[in-house]
Write a structure and sequence with these properties.
The protein is an alpha/beta fold and 257 residues long. Helices cover 37% and strands 20% of the residues. The longest helix is centred in the N-terminal third of the chain and has 15 residues. The radius of gyration is 20 Å and the shape is elongated. The N terminus is likely disordered.
């Protein structure tokens, strides 16, 4: 009887329906996915009994850490280029890669501080800033900043405001500067703007002005194991999709039931 009870206790409900030992799993995920991925990891642990280590930062930082040998099992990037860079170096398993999510950019300001601006022909963002700061993730490597600079350049706004721009290490840091009133405005993902009551959305950044905001995910070569594969499958499943939707992402892998 004791053997039978132990066997049942070891069964996972992560979709595989099989007994397994828990292998170590670390997901290195873009900072903008922090809240959603933490919730998903906790849900997976509750169902399977297997702990998931979560690491969050700008995608460029994470990619460089993985290249340097960090123990990432799964990489969730906020753009294609950093995933491509790791793939070119043989550091991802290409047959496990897919686009998991999409997102959009918005212009935000501190809650209660009116900011009269809309993205339209002839709009003057520099005048709206009145010499104050615009917070962006660093466009030299962080996807949110790359997309924002692409958009501002395409709309002929970059040259007029670049002297006002302050660069953050990741998109959550840019969000925090605006939330604390340390920057007059910022450009972040819509999902980031939803997580704090201290900012408000001024306008959506036109999607046609920048590359599509997709989040590719993949197992990391040499770090894969059965638990990592199970968690990757869970990330792509309907339970995770509902959590991603809760935080404002558009899941690309699973329908919402």
């Amino acid at each position: 009887m004791r053997i039978a009870i132990l066997f049942v206790a070891l069964l996972t409900v992560s979709g595989a329906g099989r007994a397994m030992a828990c292998d170590p799993v670390s997901i290195y995920a873009a900072a903008s996915t922090t809240d959603a991925v933490r919730d998903i990891a906790e849900a997976f642990t509750a169902e399977s009994g297997c702990e998931i280590t979560t690491v969050f930062a700008g995608s460029s930082t994470l990619a460089k850490q993985i290249e340097a040998g960090a123990p990432a099992s799964i990489f969730l990037s906020a753009n294609e280029s950093w995933m491509e860079e790791l793939a070119a170096k043989g550091l991802t398993l290409q047959n496990t890669r897919s686009d998991l999510l999409s997102n959009e950019l918005v212009l935000i300001t501190t809650k209660g501080e009116p900011f009269d601006f809309r993205f339209s022909e002839g709009a003057d963002l520099a005048a709206a800033l009145e010499g104050q700061r615009l917070a962006l993730a660093n466009p030299d490597g962080v996807p949110a900043g790359i997309y924002a600079k692409q958009a501002l350049t395409a709309m002929n706004l970059w040259d007029g405001i670049k002297k006002n721009v302050v660069f953050a290490d990741d998109v959550r840091a840019a969000l925090a500067w605006v939330a604390r009133g340390e920057a007059r405005a910022g450009i972040v993902y819509r999902t980031d703007a939803r997580i704090t009551p201290d900012v408000e959305v001024v306008a959506a950044v036109p999607a046609a002005t920048h590359d599509q905001v997709n989040y590719p995910v993949s197992l990391v070569a040499g770090r894969e194991n059965p638990t990592a594969r199970d968690f990757l499958a869970y990330l792509k499943g309907p339970s995770s999709a509902r959590i991603f939707v809760k935080y404002g992402f558009a899941p690309l892998e699973a329908p919402i039931n």
